[in-house]
Structure formats: structure tokens, C-alpha cells
Design goal:
heterodimer, A: 366 residues, mainly alpha, Cytochrome Bc1 Complex, Chain D, domain 2, 2 domains, two-stranded antiparallel ribbon, two-stranded antiparallel sheet, 16 helices, globular, disordered C terminus, B: 190 residues, 2 strands, elongated, disordered N terminus
Chain lengths: 366, 190
């Protein structure tokens, strides 16, 4: 009898556990569905951008940007209300990945912070102007990591992975390496909404499938594009203090004010990891290219190639999280460096500035 | 405890010399030989597409390549090979995706091309990721392909990563490039 009771109890337990999992899954599924149907509160940047590009539901879509630039009326298939909301959510995710402007990160940003270890990084830090950087006359900027142009050129051979890299997998790599985090599922709304937004950008700017545009990716700067002085840590440090530390902080740990990220971390726990393509020792041409074409904001394309390579070399020698290929010893050494260095540097800065250990102020003083 | 070891543990005892020892000596070379023979057969003699690095050229590929300018992407790059595999999947589905369809060579509608042209796929690709009122959800191109395998092709849905899905997308992308389609392009009537 007792054996039978025991077996019955085990069966009931398994059934109850399964029912519990089913109920939780159903609840989560319903919650996601309600988020998809909910009105989207746009960030100020997204509200402005999507208004300029004329996003609205309807049978047909005509890009005001293309009309203004070329005078051509190109008619494309319009968007349903559901599609518009997906594009809006995707834009919000790019502009405010950490959900600092959101009332509820979980609901409004699909829990993006689950996939990012740091507290600063946002897609918009690399894909500037919400993935669509333009000059004052509205021309897309070369090497500005345009999301629309990336979508048009997705699925091509990627020399770093050796894959025909789909747009969704590229996003997953961004979460793992550039955001030093974890990859979402390929079918996650987080990924799909960003794809929807990128596809909308590509129609708004009239990119054709498979055509290369200068604004796609980074305009890489190899050593051969410099006067061959070699990449210099000391020159890089001096240049960093002169041109970058004001915004990014003396230790490149980023700066924040009023709860907003003024400039993101370039080193330390909030930065990209050592498996990111931004890491000089992994790919030595991308970070210099990014710096030359995108930095400092408002003065793009003013730094010479050599200076960009020197700054990138210096930045990449600062401690940062290890990537998935570095192994536990390197990971540990970087963690120790990130824990030990900041207080030491603050201490020395405090000594020099008469006991005022404020990171940003010390950066300005130098 | 090893039963063949000698009591004092110095060396294994030779219990059955002769035929058994000969087989023991031959076991490793025989295994290596069998593996080598299988590899050679798989690559050279089997004719099974999964064992080829290259893509088997099917009738019509050269014309398709010329019509849609696939050479724009290179002579023999990874992308072009994937597009060629996509061509095989679309026009000879029963042969190249037998895991995902029950249709056989003798059936009337046994490939994607029975219903879709390559240009249909290109337009479908640039109009994908849209809300489908019938399904009540936003549907990607890959979702559509998987549904076709399971429904129209009377088979099973591959995973989203499977080359049986990916290479059809790449074929659609290559054709869309040739037609210079952008996102949401509308097909002109006639």
C-alpha cells in the first residue's frame, strides 16, 4: 500500500510540476502578447526620427527623406499597426537599450538588461544617431555603422566568423561581445523588433538589397594607411587625455550625469569585452576606423589615421572583461585589474588634486 | 582489477596466443582502413549531396546564374554556393530536402518551384517580417519557408538555422539584388 501511495505521490508531483511550468509559460506568453499590442512610448530621439521618416500605418509607404533628397516618389508596401509598433519598439531598443528612459524596462524593452552585463552600453553608442548617422545636410556618414545599410548587406560572408552571417546572428554577437553579455534567442522579440526597425530604415533611405553603401559597417584603418610610425601606447595615452578623457573619463570608465550616460565606458566592467571586434588585439583596424569616422561627436573625420590607431591601441591596453576565448586566467587577471586599478588611480588623483577624488574633475585637470 | 594482469602486477599475462593475438594486432589498422574506405566512398562514390563540399550542378543552374547575375557575388564563393544550393532546394526539393518533404520525384507538385518562381521568392523576401492577420502574428521569411515544408510540401519544418531554410533565403536575396528591390517593393501587375 505504502509503495503504491509513494508512486502515486511521485506521479502527482510530476503532473503538478508540469502544470506549473505550463501555467507560467502561458502567463509569460500572454504577457508578451499584451506588450506587442500595447501603445509604444517613444524616446525623444525615436519620436523625432520616425516622424521625419513618416512612419505611420497604411497601405502604402513613401519616404519623405527620399522625396526631399531626390524628388522621387518611391512607393513601398505600407505597415500595419502591429508592424509600426514593432518598428517603434526596435527604435527604442537601439536608442535606449538599458531602458533608462523607460518606465518599465521589462515591458518596454523586452528585458534587454538580461542580455547585457554592464550598466552603460547601448546600441546607440556604436550605431550612433539611432543607427542612422547623417551630416547637417542629411547625408549618411561613411563608416557610421548604419543599421539600414547593414540589413541591405546582411547574409554576406563574414571574414571573422567564416559564416554567411544573418542579421539576427550579428545582433546576437553584439550582445555577447560588444555588450559583454548573453545572446537572446534568434526569435526573441528583442531581435525581431530591431530587425523591423533596421528594415524600416532601409526603405526610408532607399537602400536596395545587396548594394554596398559607404555608411555600412566601419571604414577600417589598417597600419598601411598610416605613415608607418607604428602604433604607440605613449602617444595614444597623451592623445586620449587630450581629446577623449573629458567625456569618457580619465580611466575610460565612462561618465554619467543625472542618471544618463554622457559618454560610454571604453574600458572596465561596463565596456565591450576582449572578444569584440572593437578590441585592437583581435581586429586592429575596426576601432581606429570607428574613432576616425565617428569621434569626437560633431568633429568627425578630423583626426589623422595615425592618431586614431594610437588612441585605439592605448584604449585596448586598458583592463576590460575577457571574452569567451581568453580563458579563465586572463579573465581573472582582467577582473583583478578592473577591481584594483580604479581605487588606486583615484587615490593618486586625489593626492595630486588636494584630496578631491572626483573622477571626472581629475580628467579635466589633466 | 584487470583479469589479464599477472599476479605480481609486472606485465599482462599472454593467455591466448595465436589467432587472438593476431586479431588484436590487426584491429587498429582494420578500423583505420574501414574509416578511410568510408570517407573515400562518401566523397567519391556515394553521390550523397551531404558528403560533398561543392554543390551538385542541376539542370538549369547555368541559365539561372546568367539570368539573375549570380556571378556578381563571385565565381565560387560561399554565398554563391549557398545560392546554388538554394536553387537545388527550390527546383528539386524532393531530391535536396528529403528530410523535410514526403513528396517524391513522381509526384505532381514536388518542389517549391511548382508554386513559386524565383522572383516570387525575392518579392516575398523583401515583404517579409510583416503582420499576417490570418495567423495573428508577424511572420518572417524563414517562418514562411518552414510552413511551406510542413504544409504544402507535406513534410516537416526544419529549424530556422537549417541550410534548407537559409539557402532559400539567400537565393531570394540574390534575386532581389538582381532586380534591385528594396524593402517592401511592390510587384508591378503584368
Amino acid at each position: 500500500m505504502s509503495t503504491f501511495t509513494g508512486k502515486l505521490a511521485r506521479v502527482v508531483l510530476v503532473v503538478l510540476a508540469s502544470a506549473g511550468v505550463y501555467l507560467v509559460a502561458t502567463h509569460q506568453h500572454g504577457q508578451r502578447e499584451s506588450i506587442r499590442k500595447a501603445e509604444v512610448t517613444l524616446t525623444p530621439g525615436c519620436a523625432d526620427k520616425l516622424r521625419r521618416y513618416g512612419l505611420a500605418s497604411g497601405e502604402r509607404y513613401q519616404s519623405p527623406y527620399v522625396l526631399h533628397k531626390t524628388g522621387a516618389r518611391i512607393t513601398a508596401r505600407g505597415y500595419s499597426d502591429e508592424d509600426v509598433r514593432a518598428i517603434q519598439r526596435g527604435c527604442n531598443i537601439i536608442d535606449d537599450t538599458q531602458g533608462r528612459l523607460a518606465g518599465d524596462v521589462g515591458h518596454e524593452r523586452w528585458n534587454t538588461t538580461r542580455f547585457i552585463r554592464g550598466t552603460q552600453l547601448s546600441c546607440d553608442h556604436c550605431h550612433q544617431s539611432i543607427g542612422d548617422k547623417q551630416d547637417a545636410r542629411g547625408n549618411p556618414l561613411k563608416g557610421s555603422l548604419s543599421l539600414g545599410a547593414s540589413w541591405a548587406m546582411a547574409d554576406m560572408y563574414d571574414r571573422f566568423t567564416g559564416l554567411l552571417l544573418p542579421f539576427e546572428l550579428r545582433q546576437m554577437q553584439c550582445y555577447i561581445n560588444s555588450s559583454n553579455g548573453y545572446k537572446p534567442n534568434i526569435s526573441d522579440d528583442l531581435i525581431r523588433d530591431v530587425t523591423a526597425y533596421s528594415r524600416f530604415l532601409s526603405v526610408a533611405l532607399d537602400y536596395k538589397i545587396g548594394n554596398h553603401h559607404d555608411e555600412q559597417g566601419v571604414d577600417e584603418i589598417p597600419a598601411s594607411a598610416t605613415p608607418k610610425q607604428g602604433d604607440d601606447y605613449v602617444r595614444g595615452e597623451a592623445l586620449y587625455k587630450q581629446k577623449c578623457a573629458r567625456c569618457h573619463g580619465p580611466q575610460a570608465f565612462g561618465t554619467e550625469a543625472d542618471g544618463r550616460v554622457v559618454a560610454p565606458a571604453l574600458a572596465g566592467p561596463n565596456s565591450w569585452n576582449a572578444q569584440s571586434r572593437n578590441y585592437f588585439y583581435y581586429v586592429s583596424t575596426i576601432l581606429p576606423g570607428f574613432i576616425c569616422r565617428n569621434m569626437p561627436p560633431g568633429q568627425e573625420n578630423t583626426l589623422p589615421n595615425q592618431e586614431c590607431r594610437d588612441i585605439a591601441y592605448y584604449i585596448s591596453n586598458l583592463p576590460r572583461p575577457a571574452g569567451d576565448r581568453q580563458g579563465p586566467v586572463v579573465a581573472l587577471s582582467h577582473q583583478v585589474m578592473m577591481k584594483v586599478l580604479p581605487p588606486l588611480l583615484r587615490l593618486t588623483a586625489a593626492d595630486r588634486s588636494g584630496g578631491v577624488p572626483v573622477e571626472r574633475e581629475s580628467g579635466r585637470d589633466r | 582489477m584487470n583479469p589479464s594482469a599477472s599476479p605480481d602486477g609486472d606485465a599482462p599475462a599472454e593467455t591466448k596466443p595465436g589467432r587472438h593475438a593476431g586479431w588484436t594486432r590487426m584491429k587498429t589498422p582494420a578500423a583505420v582502413g574501414a574509416i578511410a574506405a568510408f570517407v573515400l566512398w562518401a566523397h567519391l562514390g556515394s553521390g550523397v549531396p551531404a558528403f560533398h563540399a561543392g554543390v551538385s550542378p542541376e539542370p538549369g543552374w547555368k541559365q539561372f546564374n546568367a539570368d539573375y547575375g549570380i556571378d556578381y557575388f563571385g565565381d565560387d564563393g560561399q554565398f554563391v554556393r549557398a545560392v546554388q544550393n538554394g536553387y537545388n532546394l527550390v527546383f528539386y526539393t524532393y531530391k535536396y530536402a528529403p528530410r523535410f518533404t514526403r513528396r517524391k520525384a513522381g509526384d505532381s507538385a514536388n518542389s517549391c518551384s511548382s508554386c513559386h518562381t524565383a522572383e516570387d521568392l525575392a518579392y516575398a523576401f523583401v515583404n517579409s517580417d510583416r503582420f499576417d492577420p490570418k495567423l495573428g502574428m508577424r511572420v518572417s521569411f524563414e517562418d514562411r519557408v518552414r510552413r511551406c515544408y510542413a504544409g504544402a510540401m507535406d513534410g516537416f519544418a526544419p529549424t530556422i538555422y537549417d541550410p534548407a531554410v537559409r539557402d532559400i533565403r539567400l537565393l531570394a536575396r540574390a534575386v532581389a539584388h538582381h532586380l534591385q528591390l528594396g524593402e517592401g517593393a511592390i510587384r508591378k501587375a503584368g
